[in-house]
Amino acid sequence: MEKDTYLSIKQATQGIYKDKGSKFLAFAYPVKKPSEVKDLLQALKKEHFSARHHCYSYRIEPSGKLFRANDDGEPSGTAGKPILGQLLSNDLTNTLIVVVRYFGGTLLGVSGLINAYKSAAADAISNSTIITHVIENNYKLEFDYPLQNFVMRVINEEKISILNSIYEMKCTLDVGIRLSVEQSAIGKLEKIEGLKITFYS
Question: Domain map of the chain by residue range?
């Protein structure tokens, strides 16, 4: 069965980790496209202009296949990768985490940095509400009013979401069908003579 859900965070949250005078402030955001990442980074850099580093990672799209990790001047692999690791271990996508570091004067070493960025990101995630999104494809159903009972029976059986509806002599429904039941639902709908089905996303 095709996976038709993904996890993301409900709203922006923060986390913090401190070690040897350095402060690691983590900011987690729900995002849907890379342009949002750019805007959020610019805003944080403006707000925390005196911070030494603004390291981040994100995963975008339901599959999480669009991702990036950035060390922003920290030793390679010590910041962006540990942040990405927290997104992966919590199976989060459409999520950005930025960790802003204020240097405390003492070097933490590679293992210390990895732990700090990982812990700050984990704290931000632990403070967030994780929600499950259902992946649906959208269709328009057009039919004459006498067919309404047949159409509604399939909608109820397959738990199809009704997004918009017009019930007149000519009825129109905009519906969302989960990927896991799409083949079954469309098969049943296609058996209703006189029903027009149009895929639109």
Answer: 5-132, 135-199
